[in-house]
Amino acid sequence: MLIISDLHAEVDGKPILKGLSLTVNPGEVHAIMGPNGAGKSTLGYVLSGRAGYEVTGGSVTFEGRDLLDMEAHERAAAGLFLGFQYPVEIPGVSNLNFLRTALNAQRKLRGEAEASGAEFMKLVKGHAEDLGLSMDMLKRPVNVGFSGGEKKRNEMVQMAVIAPRLAVLDETDSGLDIDALRVVSDGINRLRSPERATLLITHYQRLLDYVVPDFVHVLVAGRIVRSGGAELAHELEREGYGAIAA
């Protein structure tokens, strides 16, 4: 599904990713862990096509297509979803309008029929109820006045409605209390299927108690220095990143 080969990228002329390689197959959940400044968020932004992140070497193939040759909206339509560490507020745009516009824009680019109003409302209501987000909140402007946990739940509703082929979640556990973490983790697990994959970017092992990954990768100084199973996250929790990278 996703093949990253010897990826190099820089921001404002500063090299951040320095030869990163990774393969993610359908049905798999991969966790990327590492210290601050290792390049974890940069990886997510490069994959999503965020402006200001320049790829200087290597390649990325997504579903057999050259991902780096696609615009950000084309990547989204192809099935790539990026969850933000700090979801932004969008005053004046209701959650419902935002979600329906995003869903139908992607369907249109894929040559699919747009969702009718009734179909959309049934879809979004079901996912919102599963994630503990009221319809009143969905009528409000995107993330405006939401707590950190509510913003992350809202993002999980977005992800569930869009149902991406590959979800890249950048520290989605950041700022969550234990109850919100469980709800958000449940949202991630609901999306797991043999046709989809997830890339979890996180500092801490606690998220991985609820969303058990197939593989854990340690990213240090722009490179993956070690990979293993879920047990590697517990080793990192005990030993820290210094011992692993040494």
From TrEMBL:
Top-rank taxon, per record: Bacteria
InterPro entries the UniProt entry points to: ABC_transporter-like_ATP-bd, ABC_transporter-like_CS, FeS-cluster_ATPase_SufC, P-loop_NTPase
SUPFAM superfamilies per UniProt: P-loop containing nucleoside triphosphate hydrolases
Domain ABC transporter: 2-246
Gene3D superfamilies listed in its UniProt record: P-loop containing nucleotide triphosphate hydrolases
The entry's keywords: ATP-binding, Nucleotide-binding
NCBIfam families in the cross-refs: sufC
Family: Belongs to the ABC transporter superfamily. Ycf16 family.
UniProt protein name: Fe-S cluster assembly ATPase SufC
Organism: Sphingoaurantiacus capsulatus
